[in-house]
Amino acid sequence: MSTLFVAIASMIGFVIAYHTYGRYLAKKLFALHDDEPMPSVVQRDDVDFVPTDRSVVLGHHFTSIAGTGPIVGPALAVFWGWLPALLWVIFGSILVGGVHDLAALVISIRNRGESVGQAAGHLISKRAKLLFLIVLAMALSIVLAVFGLVIANIFKLYPESVLSVWTAMPVAVMIGWFVIRRGNALVIPCLIGLGILYLTVYLGAYRLPLDIADVLPADAVYATPVGVWTGLLLAYAFVASVLPVWLLLQPRDFINSLQLVVALVLLVVGLGVASFGGEADLMSAAPAIATEIPADAPPIFPFLFITIACGACSGFHCMVSSGTTSKQLKVASDAQLVGYGSMLGEGMLAVLVILACCAGVGMGRLERTVTDGQTVITRTTPSDTSGATNGSPAWRSYYRTGLPAREETADGGQSAARQNNTTQDGGWRKQGLDKKLAAFIDGGANFMSSIGIPLKMGVAIMAVMVACFAATTLDTATRLQRYVLSELSSSAGFSFGANKYVATGFAIAVALLIAIFAGDAPGKGGLSLWPLFGATNQLLAGLALMVSVFYLARRSRPIAVLAIPMFMMLLMPAWAMTFDLVNNWWPARDWVLIGFALAVLCLQFWMVVEGIVLWRRQKSVQQS
After folding, report:
1. Which member of 340, 346, 406, 591 has the lowest number of beta carbons within 10 Å of its beta carbon?
2. Where are the alpha helices (DSSP H) in 93-185?
3. For the purposes of burial, counting CB atoms within 10 Å of the CB of 205, is it exposed (0-12), middle (13-18) or buried (19 or more)?
4. pTM > 0.90
5. What is the pLDDT of residue 247?
6. Contact between 296 and 420 (Cβ < 8 Å)
7. Nearest Cα to 179, choosing from 246, 105, 261, 89?
């Protein structure tokens, strides 16, 4: 019952927060009203600026900010125990992340749809704008390389997900043309699209799993499954970024949001049945606060706050809010639902991830074996002879060293054994990004099995949900990088960035170079910068909150609700990055990480100094 109680209590808390604190932020602090001129209407071009029904915008925004962020972060952070992760997710979403997302959205819609980076030029200084845009470009380059890698690894480990993810794209184009462009009703076509999506989930699980390694010759150049999938996904991201938002981005995100709702309903119902039946018990499955942690593991402070980003607070969200969402909102009052409400929804998703990675995997470990060419998934209860008492044997088989222990065997199966090779040089974050998703997918499938869904189908549903989420983030991030590069080139006095094909091509080329050539194997270059992702992402949130504080101060409104989160999100990631720099990367002479970290820290310090210098005379800054 503890599992169900945590889920219900968290959900009630988020609903109450939306109707109280969220209403205060929207109505009182930001004074949103429906007669405000909106960028989507005033600057409508039917490519980027498109006034859109709030249900469609909500679907786009939620699936874009969610991605795999609220899955990977909590799935890793329960290494320290489920209670610290749960508390940061709940209070972080309500008091930090939701405020951050809503503030970025409001600032953008009141500045002609400009990004928070551009708004920094009005609210702080032109140098602050340039610094912010550089940080944005660096962060988005990591996002593109890492999320391309995430999906590629899911395709490799879960070939049953490939058909559904790629089928969703042409289906979305047809729905976009039929519904949004032609003005037809939305519900029926989207339900048909959802039905097609789940048909392909079944076909992928039982009939047509697609593994690119079976198609390409073994000696093809860079023909590793991960490398090839990464290249194809980035090529798709280029196309998606230059198409009008109504043709692919909006309908695909809306279908993905419906697919997510179905998957989460199955997850919650399965969680409830398993909890009532005594199969899923959070208290006995995993430690509330872990005590059996490897001595070389990173400290919970400050690393908890950069490990769980999406799901509590994430700088990437300010780019989505001010990059694409602000260009689609019809009326200002929708900002509370789309900006603040989506963050609370993501927080609830993160809560379910925590429960799946603890109570779900505590139900038993999933093993994949291949028999007569068919993949068979079974649930086993691992034996444990280590003498450890912190958590169930099944949970410890995933989190023995702080990471899910899924290692591929020669026959394509998964082994539960894993050596304790966690290191403090970022290894706990770098050792196979797919490993961090395994606990959530398997734990979720365990929940679904309690309501009669076969484990194989449950794994397919969960894998498709994760891959579709990550694909949404990938194409949204590509579009955002195009905007950022255009703004940077304009600020530098160049015109080439104004061409969307040139800007997008440059963004994809940089991401592809990182993904293919920066790592120790084709397609794994994103992992070389992965240890920097959490801290860079959270520093970006702190800088966006600083811009928001200036926005409120210029209007003589209370700043505490933004200033307190700002200090936290500037301190924690800088602390974590400095810790890694001094204790790990410098001793290891990892010059890539050292150079990137020093650049990010210097940019942050410079921008903070700009803010401090201008604070006393901020009334002289142009009001916007």
Report:
1. 591
2. 98-109, 116-123, 126-157, 162-175
3. buried
4. no
5. 80
6. no
7. 246
pLDDT, residue 467, reads: 86
**Tokens 């290249």 sit at which residue?**
231
Token representation of residue 319: 């780019």
Instruction: Give the phi and the psi of residue 287 in degrees, each rounded to 5.
Output: -70, 140
3-state class of 569 per DSSP?
A: helix
SS3 407: strand
Report, as ranges of residue numbers, the positions in the chain whose pLDDT lies below 50.
218-223, 401-426, 428, 431-432, 620-622, 624
Confidence at residue 560, expressed as pLDDT on a 0 to 100 scale: 95
Q: Identify the CA nearest to 109 among candidates 59, 29, 36.
A: 36
Residues 544-572 have pLDDT tens digits of 999 999 999 988 899 999 999 999 999 99
Nearest alpha carbon to residue 254 among 51, 441, 53, 47: 53
| Residue 484 contacts residue 140 (beta carbons within 8 Å) | yes
Contacts of residue 50, defined as CB under 8 A and 6 or more positions apart, other chains included, come to 40, 44, 244, 245, 246, 250, 327, 328
Cα distances from 81 to residues 7, 32, 86, 311, 371, in angstroms, run 17, 40, 9, 16, 37
Q: CB 415: neighbour CB atoms within 10 A?
A: 13
- Cβ burial of 474 (10 Å; 0-12, 13-18, 19+) is buried
Residue pointed to by tokens 């959802």: 194
Cα 86 to Cα 6: distance, rounded to the nearest angstrom: 9
Instruction: Give, in order, the Cα–Cα distances in Å from 111 to each of 459, 567, 623.
Output: 44, 25, 10
pLDDT of residue 255: 83
SS3 label, residue 313: coil
> Tokens 């959490």 sit at which residue?
534
Q: Tell me the C-alpha distance between 111 and 127, whole Å.
A: 18
CA–CA dist 48, 406 (Å, integer): 41
> For position 268, what pLDDT does the model report?
93
Query: Do 267 and 459 form a contact (C-beta atoms < 8 A)?
Result: no
pLDDT at residue 349, as a whole number: 94
Q: Can you spell out the DSSP letters for 177-207?
A: IIIIITT--SHHHHHHHHHHHHHHHHHHHHT
Q: For residue 48, which amino acid is it?
A: D
Distance CA 316, CA 329 (A): 19
Q: Are 169 and 248 in contact (CB under 8 A)?
A: yes
Burial 174-191 (b: 16+ CB within 10 A, else e): ebbebbbeeeeebeebbe
Q: How much is the pLDDT for 551?
A: 94
pLDDT at residue 1, rounded to an integer? 60
DSSP 623: P
